[in-house]
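Before drawing any conclusions, I needed to go through one protein's amino acid sequence and its backbone structure tokens, quoted below without any editing.
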Amino acid sequence: MALPVHSTAFSDTLVVLGAAGLVIPAFARFRINPVIGFILVGLLVGPSGLGSLVGQAPWLFHFTITDVSSIEPFAELGVVLLLFSIGLELSFRRLWAMRSMVFGLGAAELFLSGLVLGLAFRLLLGLSWPGALGLGTALALSSTALVLPMTGMTGAVGRRAFSMLLFEDVALVPIIFTLGALAPFGAQDRWDGLARTIGFGTLTIAAMLILGRVLLPRLFAQAARTKSPELFLAVSLLIVILASIATSAVGLSPIVGALLAGILIAETDYHAEVELITAPFKGLALGVFLITVGMSVDVRVIAADWLSLTTAVVGVVLVKALITAAILRFSGARRGVATETGILMASPSETTLIVLATAVQAQLISRDTAAFWQIVTALGLTITPLLASVGRDIARRVERRSAGPVEEVPEEGVQRAYIVGLGRVGRLVAQMMQAHRLPYLAVDADADTVAHARRRGYSATFGDITRPGMIDKLHLGQASAVVLTMDDPVQVVRMTRRIRDQFPDLTIVARARDPNHAAELYRAGATDAVPETLESSLQLSEVVLVDLGLAMGPVIASIHEKRAQLRAKIMEMAAITREPPLRRRRLDEG
């Protein structure tokens, strides 16, 4: 039977798909984090936004969500699929290698942050010790759903953030049971319940590990033989949901089951296909979760008590950021990594709301207190992308200071080429310069990259060439050439234009993405722009011709001729009717 047009299901679906298909691409066009986009959509279409005007303007019914509970199941599925996708990128070997970070950094960050916040609530708010510690522990949690999509799990920040978040997810159930046991009039059955949950949970996880290793490869093999993407998708989602139900049935969090399912599938040959086929569902469902976060923010309540709420948010963020950064520094992390990770992990979590509800149920804190901190949590979740951006900027400044000033280039002496960027391309250029005994200096804005390059024998120095005054600091006027190898098309064009304006006769060789980018670089003043797409095609052609038996000499000559033709076409695209000044001068001198 068809649903009526005015049903809540239709209107909610319209809002969710409209956000995913229209609003988010618009935010991406202006380089705004999609996380912020979904949260703002929830704020706009929620009960405290346009949803409050449905009575006066009934047509808004189709563009608002008036009942948050109607989409909460899909939002929970988004968090479950996120943890599942994280599990797909892990393995038991990698988890075992990370055990010290998970149970070291993770435990220290959660317990120390919870203790300090709890002590503050005890002294400043006069809460009882159980209530203060319960509230402090709730706010010490950080958002897995928001942080991991922004950091990943492979970088220096991502590995540490994931370790701490994984410990928090594992510790969530013991936290909930402990709060219940701390309820007034001492509930011994709460401790018994915790023990039973740990026991049954251990048995359930062990059974899942054994059955998963035996059954999953065979199950996916049968699905793969049908060559039916629909069946493969159904099997993948079925495994995730069954694993989540299994852990929920014994009192554990469903995200534990989802994570374990992902890890088990990661051990099979089908993990890449599973990750690819479930990605759209994860992205859309996670977007719904972010919309519910935005819907929980009531602008009118914030306006009425903005000073207290702002103070609370800033206080929680500062305490968590300082403690997390200090723990990371003590464990040996670089200053920049510790700073960025600390700020990124500073906001509360979506699971904070669960712990707050448990604390109210256990009569450890009042409902009014919980309501206030729920708003603080919603605000903290909303500003998490902004904290990530601020953390990156501050980390860069910290790294620059810790790396020391850029070394001075002598006023007199031999000319040298400057290679800007020490990534894959920059290192290869430096190797060729070394092979031909040509002097050079590589410049990079990442202190670790520079230190690693120096250890491997490269001539490298720290410096951010985009900073005002850095070009003069490097004395590029004495350079024999500047090679721009950064993997940032916009920045390469901008730097080419700036350097050409200051040094009209300097050779500037720039890395280009494609012919259109190369044409833009020529217009900006590049002496040569090398499109990666064309060069790879020319190299492939050279290998094919030589393998087919043609002599190397004629092949190389034809490749050079083709390269010249392509360069001429690119210059024609750039509306350059003659060679750049420096190239023409060299030809005349020759």
Notes: The mean pLDDT is 78. The two ends are 83 Å apart (CA to CA). Residues 36 and 494 are 28 Å apart (CA to CA).
